[in-house]
Q: What sequence folds into this?
């Protein structure tokens, strides 16, 4: 049976609230996900929360009831509480009516099997958690294997990134690495590194993409460093017909990903 919490001072409330902090997420090895859609995506991917909390209205929906029952059967801590306490946990004034606490999956490059997918997304120094979440959604949409984050990127397990991923955090592999470690790993097996850049005349529609293909996009404002571009097997440019000099990083990744898939189909 669910246990009821009606106190803001409850230790579980404090612990869940602390997961909004990156340091605490790392120490606990857990992260927070909000909303029935994301929790359903997690369940459909075979992942159930360690803790699930909901307001009475949040447990009424048939899908929510299924997830709550499945999590409870697996030994999760199931909590019924008030909307105000849910707001305290999530840090939002208008929280979703249900949230879950999940274990963070391993993010080492060694956990990536490049043979499981022909396409992988790679982002360097991506700072916006919304862009990061959007790239995860794009990866899910195109059937990519996952997202590899290079150097100092936003935390993929932040509430903002998880929300923006719309559940793709549970369907896509996520790895983090320094550039030099990524290059060593990449070159240890077959794999084409394709970078997006303004410093090339190769139109992205004209390039030849091999499998597995690793699509690399740079920082939102600075792009890729020169030494990173030099390491790429192919640099491509998305022409800009308007006055803007570049696309949003996540949008550029989406345009590229669909073109790569289209080129393989046409070939």
A:
């Amino acid at each position: 049976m669910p246990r009821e919490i009606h106190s803001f001072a409850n230790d579980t409330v404090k612990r869940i609230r602390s997961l909004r902090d990156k340091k605490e997420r790392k120490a606990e090895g857990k992260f927070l996900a909000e909303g029935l859609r994301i929790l359903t995506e997690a369940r459909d991917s075979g992942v159930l929360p360690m803790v699930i909390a909901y307001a009475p209205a949040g447990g009424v929906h048939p899908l929510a009831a299924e997830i709550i029952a499945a999590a409870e059967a697996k030994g999760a801590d199931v909590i019924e509480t008030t909307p105000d306490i849910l707001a305290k946990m999530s840090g939002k004034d208008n929280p979703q009516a249900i949230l879950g606490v999940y274990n963070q999956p391993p993010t080492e490059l060694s956990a990536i099997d490049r043979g499981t997918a022909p396409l992988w997304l790679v982002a360097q120094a991506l700072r916006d958690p919304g862009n990061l979440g959007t790239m995860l959604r794009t990866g899910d949409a195109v059937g990519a294997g996952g997202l590899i984050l290079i150097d100092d990127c936003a935390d993929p397990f932040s509430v903002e990134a998880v929300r923006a991923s719309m559940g793709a955090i549970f369907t896509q592999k996520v790895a983090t690495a320094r550039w030099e470690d990524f290059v060593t790993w990449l070159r240890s097996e077959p794999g084409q590194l394709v970078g997006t850049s303004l410093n090339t005349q190769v139109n992205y529609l004209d390039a030849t993409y091999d499998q597995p293909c690793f699509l690399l996009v740079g920082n939102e404002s600075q792009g890729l460093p020169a030494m990173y571009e030099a390491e790429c097997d192919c640099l491509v440019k998305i022409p800009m017909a308007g006055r803007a000099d570049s696309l949003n990083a996540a949008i550029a990744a989406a345009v590229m990903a669909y073109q790569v898939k289209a080129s393989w189909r046409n070939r």
Q: What stands out?
A: The two ends are 56 Å apart (CA to CA). Residues 118 and 252 are 19 Å apart (CA to CA).
